[in-house]
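Hi team, as promised in this morning's meeting, here are the two structures we talked about. I've kept the exact order from the run log so nobody has to guess. The first one is mostly here for context; it's the second one we should focus on when we meet again. Sequence first, then the predicted structure tokens.
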Amino acid sequence: MEKLSVGEFQGQVLSAFKSFFDEESLSGFGERARSVKEGVLSEGRHRVVVLDLEKNGKSLKVAVKAFGRQGCLKDFYDFRKGSKAERSFKAGNFLKSRGVGTPQPIAYFDCWEGKRLVESFYLSDYVESLISFKDSLIQAYHEKADCRFLVARLSHIASAIRRMHDVGFWHRDLGNQNMEFQVSSKGEWGEVQFIDLNRGRIREDLSAKERGQDFSRIRLPSAFLNVLVRIYWKGNPPPEFTKEMLSRRRGFEWWERSRRW
């Protein structure tokens, strides 16, 4: 991992990819990420696109998350604690170093004007044909998959979440859309890839309450959620986990409804 300082950008890059990031390649990078029409993975306040980087006859396909501008209070926080891009990069490297699935972090770079964050980008390896847990559930419901199929998939997800928590990572935004995987031609799920890591926290050991908070944003019918939880805990969960999960779920559901007002 090396420091990246090119023109107006400051950040970090994995040593193996440093040659792709120089003044020429980063000139107009923000405009390119914001205006490209093909390879758009996500639109909104933060935009995620696929870009091909080329240097000295080599090419690198990356997923670029271009973070949107934010208010001065959040800029003040990020100036002290690190931008969302920086936190994503550090979290991704933490997970990869401990054998937890996430697309390989490549680099992050920010442009600051004083204490205002003007541009911010997180780059990771682009993994082909990922499907989210959210979309896979929609597909399974549409195809009226039997319970054995769904329980097997819940076991796959529960094991991945347990592994992430046990190495000391508290995701804090663990919705169905932030767990992705590839599906083989035989319908088998690959390793779960956790994404949108910028809210995460690294802990020596996660408490039951912190684990419960992560489950609070997973959207499943109550019976399947209970199955997921029991697989995760290999039995009944501790009371403090359940209390926190249900309390946070109610709060999050209220927040989601209030956004429509």
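And here is the second protein, the one for discussion:
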Amino acid sequence: MSLPEGMKQKNVHLERLEINGNHSLSFVTRGQLPSSLKQLELIFCEKLQYVFADAEETCTSSSSSYSENINDINTFLERLSVLYCPSLTCLSTRDQLPATLRYLDIQNCSKITTLSRGQLPDLLQDLRIDNCQKVESITERFHNSMLLETILIHNCANFESIPEGIHKLSRLREIRISECPSLVCFPEEGLPNTNLRLFDISDCENLKALPRGMQTLDYLSIWICPSIKSFPEECFHTKLTRLSIGNLDMYEQLNQWVLPKLTSLTRLDIGEWPDVESFEIGMMLPTSLTHLFIAHFPKLKYLSSDGFQNLTSLVFLSIHNCPNLISFPKIGLPSSLMELRISECPTLQKQCRRDKGREWSKIAHIPCVLIDLKFIYDLEEEE
């Protein structure tokens, strides 16, 4: 079943259409939507098989009058979202999407395997695929005329390859890929080295190596990719301002040659190294650092022996889920620190009680101290 007849003629000024919970809709015939439409959302349409279909491929007789050339339909459609449509197998029976499409979001569609075997629209800027377990690829190849700026792929178990030509996407600014265990490598050409600012990859257990072409990044995040054994030196360049990293086979590399060269770094999130007992890596942190997040070190007992005293710009420190952490460094914490957060660190938290705990004198100068998200002075009143 398609949309009702007369949909196009009766809604000549319609700009946004949401179809939610239509359990009869199986396709949208080409030319059936008003040319004024800019945004189309299809949600919980359990029988929807494809979004754009040729009438002759789906039915006969009267509805054949709706068949039109793809270049003539949905001329102004800019945003397409397809969410929770478990029968969706493809977006277009011709593998062509509206040329004006700028935003494409596909979520929780369990049967679709690829977005297009042809070319994606040149004007596409934002691409998101979330929880589509059978998706193997985005398209066969990116072409250099595309304006793509953002790629987000999350929880796609069969996703195994990034299209060739990604290095030609001169406007690409952001790549986020997570929970894609079938992804093994990136194209040999690497990533575009023009405008890319953010690269975030996590929970890709079989990824063997990071791509080349990350020397323009501001923010790099790598978590839970245990198969990565080597790292392009260019991904840890001096202009990097934010680094989030954990559960990798590179703790010693991080300490010896990565952190010392990050002279512009302002924020570091680090964690999930199960065997580390002492955070001596703290001595290698750059003086530019203002925010430090330490989390998920199950065996950590001691922080840096120098107390982060070289971190004269540090204003925020968070320590989370370090159950065996005993104390702060003997020489205390930086005087610049304005906020300290401690959570799920039971041994340390007992020593931070105001005027009673052994560690209180080391944190008394800090204006804001939160323990398990409660202001430390409020804890006094509760006791």
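Starting points for discussion:
The longest helix spans residues 251-258.
The first strand starts at residue 16 and ends at 20.
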